[in-house]
Amino acid sequence: MPIAACNGLQLYYTVHGSGEPLLLIHGFGGAAVDWAALAAEWAADFRVIVPDLRGHGRSTNPAPTFRHDAAAGDILALLDHLEVPGCNGLGVSAGGNVLLHMATRCPERVKAMVLVSATTHFPEQARPIMRSYRIELLPEEEKEKMRLRHPGGPAQIDRLFEQARAFADSYDDLNFTPHDLAKITARTLIVQGDSDAFYPVQISEEMAAAIPNAELWIVPGGGHGPIGGERWAGFVKRAGEFLRKP
């Protein structure tokens, strides 16, 4: 099982294929296994690197909280471990937020990225939802997925939900200004559902305006992470074409 010692934690990851390095970063509460099918499909064109974010899946987290800036530092350390100077990236929700931190902190290391339901900050409309996070509120199918993703069992899952509730009072971890975003040199595709309960479309519009080389894709009727189900094939096609551009 591939494990990298990064920033005082054990970071689990998988690598598939060869070619241009490509990070696939899952959302909060997810795990590397969520990308298994896409990693296998894209391994023909990319060297696909798929980590478990700190505290998720098989990765540890010595900190009591989850911070996207710290998780970005972990992934940069993983790239150092793998001797990868630069890469492309695809991140959903928290994974997209991690890529934003990477691309603003070390612009030269992210060449192109697809951000799905990422945000520059946690808006007020999201905070009551975050405060209500409880595994008991999930459908049984989603509970089972959480159990399968996280081998640490109830203790690991409970900790993740506690950390997610803490986002409601977090203001400094995600606080990207237009000045910050202007530092990004990566070609960027921003994907946002127009019915996202967490983040209004305005955030993505402002993000696209501030990042120098950005495209905005608003998904009609799409909620948070609007790429699943019947939309998946279309998303994979468009994201793959974007990431394969020279």
Spatial strand sequence of the major β-sheet: 1-2-4-3-5-6-7-8
The CATH architecture classification is 3-Layer(aba) Sandwich
Largest sheet: 8 strands, mixed
Q: How many structural domains are formed by the residues?
A: 1
Radius of gyration: 17 Å
> How does the overall form come out from the CA principal axes?
globular
Q: Could you list the spans in which at least 5 consecutive residues all have pLDDT below 50? A: none
CATH-derived topology:
Rossmann fold
Distance between the termini: 33 Å
Rounded average pLDDT: 97
Structural class: alpha/beta
State the CATH class. Answer: Alpha Beta
Tell me the strand percentage band: 15-25%
CATH superfamily: Alpha/Beta hydrolase fold, catalytic domain
Put simply, the count of helices is: 9
How would you describe the oligomerization state of the chains in this entry?
Answer: single chain
SSE arrangement, N to C: EEEHEHEHEHHHHEHEH
**Share in helix:** 25-40%
Query: What's the count of strands?
Result: 8
